[in-house]
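Step 1: inspect the first sequence and its tokens.
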Amino acid sequence: MSNLAVDIELAKIGVCVRIENAPDAVQALVQAIPGWPVTVQPAAGTLPDIYIYRDAEGLWQSWLDDPNEFDLPSPAAVACSLVGELIGRRLEAEPTLLGVHCGSVEINGTLVLFPESSKAGKSTLTVAFAAAGYRVFGDDVLGLTAEGVGVAMGVAPRLRMPVPDSFSAEFVAYAERHAGPEDECYRFVIPANNGLARFDESCPVGAIVLLERDAQVIDPEVVKLAPGEGLLQLLCQNFAASDTPNEELFERLLPLMQRVPCLLLRYSEPLAAVRYLAKVIDNPDLQSISGASLLSHAPVSVANLTLFDHADVWAIANGVSVYSLGDELFLVHPSSGAIHRLNASGKVVWQLLQHEPLSGHALSEVIAVYFNAP
């Protein structure tokens, strides 16, 4: 059986996977990473710590240091599982890169990023951009340098299957024409020619776009948001090690959000959406303006609120780092890792407390005057 076992070697991370008795899984993996230099060679030497094999019961994935293993229903599922593992290892091999969960496409020489948001369609939009003729840097993970430059992983985007009937015939035809490995859950879509950025190819980030998919939307709309919205999304969607201080992440991402716009794309049909977004990127005057926050908060019971005496005197805590972004302030408490986002009211309070401690009564009166409230 040794002639049926191969080792997979990838740029930056070396020999990393052994696949036994599953040539279709090897083919699926290679097709799914067309931009990532890969070498398939006869298995030899020490067993890599990721191991895929097929037996009479199907395909299985295991790890050298873990007795557990799990079954994979198809070669496409093998590719999906391995891609996630291998991207993580590629980022570990280059600690200067921050891995961000996002879709990324090139428009006019800069990258537009779509941070991960539950079922908002970042992968679908990435494929739609490919169908519209734009270059894809990735649909799931992008490396980000300290200077705010995106670095491609060389992995093809994938669609959740089945493709909805509401998508345009042009989109569906493209996804079928460029279909790679697939099963009933996912399909990799392989952009043609130079449509997928090669492994390690880089491009500066030009915009952050948050997504809102709504079947009731007839025409796509792009809304300009406060930069703090994009900053919070990037803080939440990164591969940084759990012991990386929030302050360090904040200082890394803040300069990016100080120079690039943060937008919201509302849409229903992906191909129409990407064409309109590209038009807006070219012509910022088409953007609507919104000061609303996108963050959804669960209702808080009045019974759970902590009451305080307005006569209590408030003062700023020691050791808090303060960052300004647009009209907002962000406070980072290094010892706890807590991040607080202050809107206009909170910003006024913080600025007042920087001068002297104040009671709740005094703060209320000053804020009321500041905002011309009764």
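Step 2: inspect the second sequence and its tokens, then contrast the two.
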Amino acid sequence: MEIIKEIGRKIIHLTSIFIVIFYHFFGKGTTLFILTALLLIFLIAEYIRVELNRKIPVFWRFFREREKKALGGEVYFLLGSMIAISVFPKLIAYSAILMTTFGDSTASLAGKAFGRIKIRQKKTLEGCIAEFLVNLGISFVILKHLPLAIVMAGVATIVETLTTKLDDNLFIPVFSGFAGVLVLRIMG
């Protein structure tokens, strides 16, 4: 049952691919405007849910127990996406956002389905390996630059693995994007 609930959560997360598609077709300004509007809507909903203790029927079942009394991951993901779009070159932002979505989902689902070797709390070696491979594939397809893809995929995987108390939906796009920019600067 837990894996079914997790699949439902990850399907919701996968809708975030539309951020990258929207950014590609409508540009930075329009995308940031729409994401800001969405963020405000989610913040209002989160205020109602957390502060006023009102359940939002459709989404309540997708919250993890630790999220039921705190901001949901969608707020952090929107913030992370907004930072990536604002600060990083377009292709690095695409990679950072998609790694956050697909890499994190892969780690979770692979870890729950195949994970045997625990490396940190609920994190498994199998989930980390699966995440790294997906992150590497995403980065390489978008960036077409193997060293850059390896660094960004590695940073995204490490951040997802080490982040346990804070929401990795904010940190993965920011740190992996920063690492990507750093690699480009170093390599000239």
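Step 3: confirm your contrast with the notes below.
The chain has a mean pLDDT of 89. The beta strands are 118-120, 123-124.
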